[in-house]
Every structure is written in structure tokens, then in C-alpha cells.
């Protein structure tokens, strides 16, 4: 039964057979911190999805925004380089390390009993950039298979055959997207996995080949210093008509207040259902999830 005044059931269900969402943390934190920061989202989503939290492959200093609360949660990690002091690595090795870390988290969840289909990616900050980049890489492999008249796609950087991500939840995700398959992408609109994304020289027009057509939910804090880059990801790298935008009066963090959280999870449920994923609604349906908060 739900809590009075709420649609969230009091009993947390067994998630063994639930569809799974892979959750990718930002830079300078780790999976445990992302999970703790996402507690308000989890209260809702755990009734429809099995959430799996992956750790990035590279160690780094903690992000300055989390030291006071999560300073004891070391080691801190990243997926990509964004500071000059981050150790240089070639693109192929970086992509392989990212793929290995994600595959390990997914296989660990299999061993822990997870049996549901992998349906979505949810990332914050650098994890949102990576989520969108993974969706784009999958899209390119699918398009290549169609051109060649093949029913099966090539195996992507995660190294698990048959993956078909249906949607992405991009919490404070910045442009540009990362090139996770240099054999397929040559566009200058993408940043190499070996390079720093800070100071990236944007192209005038993002070419059609690297515009993401998969459904994406974009959550933008109006007080976030990186908002202009979040908007570039939303407007320039994602196909309009396949996007849902939620704006809220917050800085660079994950929403925890009920009204914003309800709009985010409502958008997730809506997009999931549109992509044939069954969910349990824990919020009231609204006419639109795309208004300013």
C-alpha cells in the first residue's frame, strides 16, 4: 500500500526481473556517492527498475563540491579527462577501460541475481556525457548494420552482445559528446576519448551522423555554471522531437525536492512506456513534463 498522500508503495519489491538502468557517476566522485545523491529518485524508480551503479576506471581527486559531505567516500573516480593534470591516455585504451568498468558492473549484477533487460542509461555530469555518447555509439553501429543489410549489430565498447539501450536520462550533461568508436566516427563535433573536453572548439554545425536520435531526458539546473553547455547538448547534439527537457531552480547537483523529483521520474516513466518498458507509476501523470520548474 502507498504512504498516505503518496503513490509510492511502502514495500520495496524484489527487483530481480525488473528492467535495468545503468547509472554512471560524474567526475571526481564514485558509484556510492552517486547512489547516495540520487536517494530521492531511487525512492520512486526502485518500484519499476533495477538500478545498477558503475564505478569509473580512473582515480582522481574529489570534486570540490562533494568534499564536505562525501570526503570520506574515497577513492574518487572519473571516466574521462577534463583537467590537464589527469594522466594522458590514448583513445583506444581509454575506451577499453571504460568498457571494462561498465561490463564488470553489469556482470557483477548478473551474479547478484539481476535478470532483467538492460533498457536505460542514467548519468550525472560527466556520466551524462558518457551515457549520451554510449547511445550515439550504439546508434552508429545499428545504422552500419542496416546499410550492410545485417540483422545483428557489431559488439560495442562494453563488450556485451545484444545490448539495446532504449533511452538516456541526462542529469546536467554537457556537450560535446565523446567519440567512443573512432572507426565509425570522424566528425570534429565529437571530442576524442583521449582529449580534454574543457576548452573544446565547437563546430558551427553538428553533422547529421553524430546527432543522437535515441530518446533522451535532459535535466537542467538554472543556476548551474555549465548550463550553456547543457543546452548545447540538448539543442545541437540531440534530435528534437526525441528529447524531454526539465528545468529546475538548482545548481550543479541532483534534484532531491519532491516536485522536481516527481517531474523527473514522471518523464522517465513516460519515455520508458513509449519504448515498450512496463513501469509502475509512483507519481500522477501530467500533461507535460517539459515546463520550467
Automatic annotation (TrEMBL):
Keywords: Hydrolase. The keyword Lipid biosynthesis does not apply. GO terms for molecular function: hydrolase activity. It comes from the Eukaryota. Residues 19-263 form the Serine hydrolase domain. GO terms for cellular component: cytoplasm; nucleus. Gene3D superfamilies: alpha/beta hydrolase. InterPro entries: AB_hydrolase_fold, FSH-like_dom, LovG. SUPFAM superfamilies: alpha/beta-Hydrolases. One of its GO terms (biological process) is secondary metabolite biosynthetic process. The keyword Hydrolase applies. Belongs to the LovG family. This is Serine hydrolase domain-containing protein. It comes from Didymosphaeria variabile.
Amino acid at each position: 500500500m502507498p504512504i498516505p498522500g503518496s503513490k509510492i508503495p511502502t514495500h520495496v519489491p524484489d527487483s530481480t526481473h525488473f528492467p535495468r538502468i545503468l547509472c554512471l557517476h560524474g567526475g571526481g566522485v564514485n558509484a556510492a556517492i552517486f547512489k547516495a545523491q540520487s536517494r530521492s529518485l531511487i525512492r520512486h524508480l526502485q518500484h519499476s527498475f533495477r538500478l545498477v551503479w558503475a564505478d569509473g576506471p580512473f582515480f582522481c581527486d574529489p570534486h570540490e563540491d562533494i568534499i564536505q559531505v562525501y570526503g570520506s567516500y574515497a577513492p574518487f573516480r572519473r571516466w574521462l579527462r577534463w583537467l590537464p593534470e589527469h594522466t594522458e591516455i590514448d583513445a583506444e585504451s581509454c575506451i577499453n577501460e571504460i568498457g571494462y568498468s561498465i561490463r564488470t558492473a553489469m556482470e557483477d549484477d548478473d551474479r547478484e541475481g539481476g535478470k532483467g533487460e538492460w533498457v536505460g542509461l542514467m548519468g550525472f555530469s560527466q556520466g551524462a556525457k558518457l551515457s549520451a555518447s554510449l547511445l550515439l555509439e550504439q546508434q552508429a553501429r545499428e545504422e552500419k548494420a542496416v546499410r550492410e543489410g545485417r540483422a545483428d549489430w557489431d559488439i560495442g565498447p562494453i563488450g556485451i552482445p545484444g545490448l539495446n539501450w532504449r533511452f538516456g536520462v541526462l542529469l546536467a550533461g554537457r556537450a560535446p559528446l565523446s567519440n567512443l568508436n573512432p572507426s565509425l566516427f570522424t566528425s570534429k563535433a565529437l571530442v576524442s576519448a583521449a582529449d580534454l573536453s574543457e576548452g573544446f572548439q565547437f563546430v558551427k554545425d553538428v553533422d547529421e551522423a553524430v546527432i543522437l536520435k535515441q530518446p533522451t531526458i535532459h535535466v537542467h539546473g538554472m543556476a548551474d555554471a555549465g548550463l550553456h553547455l547543457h543546452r548545447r547538448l540538448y539543442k545541437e547534439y540531440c534530435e528534437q522531437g526525441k528529447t524531454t527537457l526539465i528545468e529546475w531552480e538548482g545548481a550543479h547537483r541532483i534534484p532531491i525536492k519532491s516536485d522536481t523529483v516527481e517531474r523527473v521520474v514522471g518523464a522517465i516513466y513516460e519515455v520508458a512506456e513509449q519504448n515498450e518498458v512496463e513501469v509502475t507509476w509512483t507519481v500522477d501523470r501530467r500533461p507535460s513534463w517539459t515546463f520550467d520548474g
